[in-house]
């Protein structure tokens, strides 16, 4: 290849990269975790107990030092389930379908916060246990983005989009929820089943198809 | 709706069903399992031991009564891993990526039987244990079909196709291997991660896209 052809090729590749940049969404894989309300923190960690942040997440959330054990109908525990802070209005447990099978539960696939008609679950902490009639979900895969990102993609909060996964186990995923908020940074959240089945991991990228 | 419109609607629906019939592939979900060679059966179940079939599978294979415990680099065992018969030329352990993470292994995604450069694993049976340098894979998703089915779809053995999954967590899966043999009945095999991530289970259907 002569020098001129090489320059053309490099220019073409660089332009391709620039033009495709904005359709690329980094992946964050969510392992099973728990959000707690004030009352439930009191019950399982002790009255007035404050969670200890150890890692900052987007939107003012954080991973806490604290973990709980969760138990379902099969009475097989899953230990060391991370608590996420800060405290929420309602306690919510997010598991994968693989976890759910192990627990003996059949939680629905739902967006975070939508807890009506979800699965019952028991949480055990160092100072007590709580058994919830509702609260366990499989989180619906979703893309967090800022309002600016949303304008660039031409999408709105709660819109359903598709993404292309270009791994060896990839394809196109439908029913991906868009969640827009100023405090969000661009990231698609999938659970461990989705990451493992699709052959992708944290910081890999997918392409949004609007 | 008058009677004539109703007849038209029913005819249309029936024709749609007939025309789409052949693109519909039933799903079989493969949980973790083990194929054993004669020498390894001898080592872990005893010299000359014969496996006990309890459930017939396609292609002359069967699920055996026997199970083993598998152990990886983390020394965390997974118990009750089903043995499939009959005996094969080489021992092969098929796990999901979720299993692999738990075991501390990084097996490649490969078609069954392709065991070069695969992950090491230990198998424990009632009469002994074996530690293999190779033999653990994540099975590449594939569609079994007869030669007649292959002719109807216009595909060949080892061809790569796509499938459409129409569940709430669905989409289109690429890199699906076609495996043709007279003894096969039409069925797409996926592992538990893929089934859980895509919201499908045994006897659900997908659509082949050639």
UniProtKB/TrEMBL annotation, chains A, B:
Check the record and name the InterPro entries matching this protein: PTAC
Molecular function (GO) terms for this protein are: acyltransferase activity, transferring groups other than amino-acyl groups; metal ion binding
The protein's Enzyme Commission number: 2.3.1.222
Q: Which cofactor does it need?
A: Zn(2+)
What's its top-level EC category? transferase
Q: Does the keyword Transit peptide apply?
A: no
**Catalysed reactions, as listed in the record:** propanoyl-CoA + phosphate = propanoyl phosphate + CoA
This protein's UniProt keywords: Acyltransferase, Metal-binding, Transferase, Zinc
In what pathway does it function? Polyol metabolism; 1,2-propanediol degradation
Q: What does this protein do?
A: Involved in 1,2-propanediol (1,2-PD) degradation by catalyzing the conversion of propanoyl-CoA to propanoyl-phosphate.
Q: What protein family is recorded? A: Belongs to the PduL family.
Kindly provide the name given to this protein in its UniProt entry: Phosphate propanoyltransferase
Point out the gene that encodes the protein: pduL
């Amino acid at each position: 290849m002569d020098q001129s052809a090489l320059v053309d090729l490099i220019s073409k590749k660089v332009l391709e990269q620039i033009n495709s940049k904005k359709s690329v969404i980094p992946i964050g894989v969510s392992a099973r975790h728990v959000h707690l309300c004030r009352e439930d923190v009191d019950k399982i960690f002790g009255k007035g107990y404050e969670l200890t942040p150890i890692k900052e997440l987007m939107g003012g959330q954080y991973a806490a030092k604290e973990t709980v054990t969760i138990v379902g109908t099969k009475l097989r525990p899953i230990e060391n389930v991370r608590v996420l802070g800060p405290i929420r209005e309602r306690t919510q447990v997010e598991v994968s379908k693989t976890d759910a099978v192990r627990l003996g539960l059949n939680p629905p696939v739902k967006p975070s916060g939508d807890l009506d008609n979800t699965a019952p679950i028991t949480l055990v902490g160092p100072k007590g246990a709580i058994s919830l009639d509702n609260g366990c979900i499989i989180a619906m895969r979703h893309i967090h983005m800022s309002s600016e990102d949303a304008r660039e993609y031409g999408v709105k909060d709660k819109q359903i989009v598709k993404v292309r996964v270009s791994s060896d186990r990839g394809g196109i995923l439908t029913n991906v929820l868009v969640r827009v908020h100023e405090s969000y940074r661009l990231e698609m959240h999938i659970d461990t089943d989705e990451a493992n089945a699709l052959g992708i991991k944290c910081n890999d990228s997918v392409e949004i198809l609007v």
